[in-house]
Design brief:
By secondary structure, the protein is mainly alpha-helical. The chain is 74% helix and 0% strand.
Length: 99
Amino acid sequence: MASTTIHVPRETRDHLAALAAERGLALGQLVQQLADRELTRAQIAERLRTDRDAARRNMGADMTDDEFDQAPDILGNLCKIAADKVRAARGDALRRDRP
């Protein structure tokens, strides 16, 4: 694989080198991992298109892109409900532990 040089401030290089060392990686491997995690706008748009196509096929959701955009954030709402339940359970546990 061909490599290249990236110019960054010394502090950035030192920070990345420390992260790489903590993870047992070479600096180039760390940068590759970081780059692999971040999607470009084109990649995000393609993922959205394929996810919507899959929903249309698998769930029979004959929805337009505009309808998808207006749909509620079901997963986000479920996460909020779950977080509220965890907080409530923690609160109950803390109240039971007090004398």
